[in-house]
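Anyone opening a protein record will find just a pair of labelled lines. With that in mind, the following record should read easily:
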Amino acid sequence: MTPAEVAFRVPGMAKARKITTAGHRYALGGDSLEAPPAEPGLYLVATPIGNLRDISLRALEILAAADVIACEDSRVTRKLTEHYGIATPLTPYHEHNAAEARPKILARLREGQVVALVSDAGTPLISDPGYRLVREAVEAGVAVIPVPGASAVLTALAAAGLPTDRFFFEGFLPPKQVGRQKRIAELGSIPATLVLFESGPRLAAALADLAAGLGARQAAVCRELTKLHEEIRRDDLERLARHYEAGAETRGEIVIVVAPPGDDADNADDVDDLLRRALARVSVKDAVGEVALATGRPRREVYQRALELAKDHGDGAP
C-alpha cells in the first residue's frame, strides 16, 4: 500500500477497500472526498478525545486541505489521519521542541501556507502546548482560525451533574503533596465548580487531599471519556478517595469535577469540619491560614472558631 492509499472498511463489506488519498482528500463513509481550499493561516483544530467519530466535517476538511499538520505526537495523530484517509504531512510540535519548531512553522505561515495545529486529543492549547505559537502568529499578522470540537473539560463538566453556570479550570494539581495541599486551599474559596486533570497513579492521593482541604463536597471522577471503558463515578470527595484508595481502576485519562462551596449555612459547618481536619495534620497557625483561604472567612473569625472548638473538646487553648 502506497502512502497515498489507506485501507478503509465500509459497513457491510467483508473486505477493506483501498481509497486513493492523493491531494487534499479525506475518506468518509467509504467515499473519497475532496476538501475545499482553505484560506492561509493557523487553524486550531479540535480532535476527538477518544471516539474517532467525534470529529467535525469542518475539521476533516481543514486537516485534508492543510499544507502541514503540527502535532504533539505523530503516532497519535497518524491514527486519526489514516482512519480518515488524510495524507497531509505531519510535523512535531510539543513542549520539548517548541523553541526549534516554532520559527519553522511561522516561516510557513508567512509564506501563505495553511497550517493545522492539533493536540493529542481535544482542543489545542487547553493544558497543551501552542500558546506561544498562537501569540507569535497574531503578532506576525497571520490569521488564527479556531475549528472547535471535542474538549475533555466541557465533556466532563456536562456529565458530572454539578453546577455548570460558572466553572474554573485548574488543569493538573502539583504532583507533590505539600504543593498540592497549598493549591487546594487557594482553590477552596473560588465560587465555581472546579475542573481538574489528574493521572491514575496520583488519583487517590489527590482526592484525599481535596477531601481534607475542601470538605465533603460532591464531585465526579470522569475516566476514559468517550472511550470503550468510559466511567463516571459521582459521590462526595471522601467516599471517592476511599474508593480509589481501595484499588479501583485508575488507568486512562481522568478529569475530576468538584462542586462549588455551599451557602452560608453550610459554610459554618464547613469551617468546623475543615478546621478539625487541618488541625489533625498541621499547626494551629497553618490550619487557620488554610481554612481562611479556602473559605474566604476572616482569619480572626477562623481563629476564634478554632479556640471554641478546642474549648468544647476540653483541649484548652490551641
Observations:
- Residues 1-22 have pLDDT under 50 and may be disordered.
- The two ends are 76 Å apart (CA to CA).
- The longest helix spans residues 264-279.
